[in-house]
Amino acid sequence: xxxxxxxxxxxAGDADAARLVAERALRLILAIALPLLASIGLAAPWLLxxxxxxxxxxxxxxxxxxxxxxxxxxxxxxAVLRGYAxxxxxxxxxxxxxxxxxTVDIAASVALLxxxxxxxxxxxxxxxxxxxxxxxxxxxxxxxxRSGQPVPRWRTLLVRVDRTSAEVWRIGWPEALLGVFSGGAxxxxxxxxxxxxxxxxxxxxxxxxxxxxxxxxxxxxxTAGLSLLAxxxxxxxxxxxxxxxxxxxxxxxVVAAVLLTAGPTLTGWYLATTFExxxxxxxxxxxxxxxxQVGWILCSIVLLGVCRSxxxxxxxxxxxxxxxxxxxxxxGWLLCRQP
Length: 339
Prior knowledge:
It is globular and about 60 Å long. Helix 2 (15-52) runs parallel beside helix 6. It has eleven helices and no strands. The protein starts with a helix and ends with a helix. The protein is mainly α.
């Protein structure tokens, strides 16, 4: 939501309005995230036993979750800063923050595992990675502030609710609810897979990573396109908006073609060189279906970019509810019941 309003304000040439949107989005994120994360932390032992059943070490999982929660808070704040940076066209700093996050996460996890910390080291590395991305973006804001450019100010987080806050909430609540429902779907999938064999769980993880890779690559096109479309609408340039849609389709099609061409070969090689034969046999046919999703992922990203640039975030919520709760989960549940 923040990215949409920031991009429209920036396209209209109103840098102060863009800054104000980001400030109000930061405040709303804090108001939602703090009680939510506190509730999850308190309920973690019970939640993990319900979700994982006997298949997990509930005590270890609880400790790992508690370690990750502060990182999740940093990540939520970082999402607003990424939206602001993307909305004003500064996507390189977003890439830099992502690289810093990945580097810190991997380096800290490997170092702590080597030091004998065990699985908790992975959680510490993940939390540090999430925090480092947000701190990188905050440092970038400080540099822009020193150069005299208007940037979101942290001290305004406690100001009263105003018109901008109401607009951020109006556009943002469907996006927030979408995240909740998507998380709920992931929980249901975890429960359905909790009784699976180790090879089946490993195969499911590979397929999930493959789908995430395809979505991330195409979503990069969608994120950039959304900013350009919203900026064009904010400036009232309808012709530029149409050109932006065509550019999203063209670039997205190129990325999709590369994924469809190289993806199955690379994942096949990765499976054969990394996993046991039973995992390979289980994952290979599913991976073909995973790569086949690239086409509809591209279509959905372009259509949602058009809707969201017009400040219509309810379309993505409705589409997700229908796809996940009326199709994906019921079909998945029925198939999991088959011997």
